Amino acid sequence: MAPLGIISALVAAIRVAGPLWMRAIIGRARENRASVELEIMSSTSRDVGELWNGEAIVRSMGRPSVVELILIRSRMDDPVACGLYTLENAYNSSPDQPDFELAPNISLNLYPGSGLKSMIGAALVGCILQLGVLAYSGAVTFYPGLRIRVPPHSKERPHLAREGFILLACGTLILTISLVIVCNVIETSTSEKEWSVKDSGNLRVIWVQREHSVGDQQFDAAVLFDNHDKMRVLTLRRSPNLAERIKRDQQSLKRDQQGFKDKLGQIAFDRTEFATLAGTVAALVGFIAQFQGFRFLN
C-alpha cells in the first residue's frame, strides 16, 4: 500500500489484461503473450515451462522435456500402473476435454509457498503502517501542541496543511482500492485447478527431466521430488480470456476502417479490460493526490 512499486504494478496489469491502446502507451502493443506469462505470471503453457538448471527451478520460453508422474501409494499393488499415473490420465478421461499437452507446474507443487496466516499478517502490518502515517499526519495537523513536541518542532502550521491532509487521506484510500482492483486483474488472468485422489491415501509428485536444450540454454537430466506426501496436485494455466483478447487484437490491427462502435469497443472490450483501465486511472489519481498531500503538509 506504500508508494513503492505502484507504477510497476500498474504496468504489469496493463501488460497482462490491458486493451491494445493502453499497451501501446507503455510500448508493449506487439508484445508476445509468452513474454508476459514468463515475467509476470506463475502459470505454464505450451510456450512457457519450468525446468531445473542445476541450482534452482527457472522459467523458460519453449517446450521443456519434463514428465510429471504421480505416485499413489494406495494403488502400488496395481500390476499395470504400479501406482504411477500422470495428469493426462485424469484430464483425458472426459471426452469433452482437450489433450493435456501443457508444461507441469513444478514450483507450485514443490514449494509450499506463503501460508494464509503469513499473508494475512503481512497485510495487517501494511494496514497498520499506512493507518499510522495517516494518524500521525492528522495529529500534527489538527493539534498544534503535538506539532511543537515532534520534529521539526514548528509552532506554525503550514498554510495548506488542512487541505494537504484531506488530499493525503483521499489519495491513500483511492490508491488502496485501485491497487486491490489491479491485483485482482492479475490474479484472474490465470486459472487454477486442484487434482486429488477420490478414494484414499496421499500422493507424491515426481518430475523427470531429460537432458535437452530450450532456446539457447542447456539443461541436464534431473529427477525432482518432494520429501513429503501431498493431498493434491495444483495446475495453473493462462485464462481462456487471454486467447480471446489476442485474437481480437490481431483482428483490430488488420482493420483499416472502423466504425464508432468498433472504436468504442477498443477502449475496454470486457470487464477485465475495463477493470484494468479504471484501476490504472484511479491509481494514478490517488498516487498524485497522496504525494501532493505530503507536499502540502511540509
From TrEMBL:
Keywords annotated in UniProt: Membrane, Transmembrane, Transmembrane helix
Superkingdom of source: Eukaryota
Native source organism of the sequence: Byssothecium circinans
UniProt name for this protein: Uncharacterized protein
Transmembrane domains' residue ranges: 6-26, 120-144, 164-186, 274-294
